[in-house]
Amino acid sequence: MIVFCLAFGLLAGQMGPKGRLMVDFFVVLNDIIMKLVGVVMWIQQPVSREQTPLTHHICVLRA
C-alpha cells in the first residue's frame, strides 16, 4: 500500500498539469477529512470528568 501510494504520488507529480489536478483533488479531500475528524473529536470530548469510568481514564491520560 505504501509503495503504491509513493509511486502514485511520484507519477502524478511528473505528469504536469494533468497530474496537478489529481494532486489538488487529494489535497482538498485531505482538508475535508481533517475537518470531519475535528468535528468528531469535538463532539466526543467529555463535558465533565465525572461521566463514566472510561472517560475518567481518558481525561487522566489527557492531563
UniProtKB/TrEMBL annotation:
Keyword Ribosomal protein part of the UniProt annotation: no
Keywords: Membrane, Symport, Transmembrane, Transmembrane helix, Transport
Keyword Transport: yes
Membrane topology: Multi-pass membrane protein
Any one Pfam family match given in the protein's UniProt record, by short name: SDF
Subcellular location: Membrane
Primary localisation category: membrane
PANTHER family according to UniProt: SODIUM-DEPENDENT EXCITATORY AMINO ACID TRANSPORTER GLT-6-RELATED, SODIUM/DICARBOXYLATE SYMPORTER-RELATED
Protein family: Belongs to the dicarboxylate/amino acid:cation symporter (DAACS) (TC 2.A.23) family.
Protein name: Amino acid transporter
Lineage, opening ranks: Eukaryota, Metazoa, Ecdysozoa, Arthropoda, Hexapoda
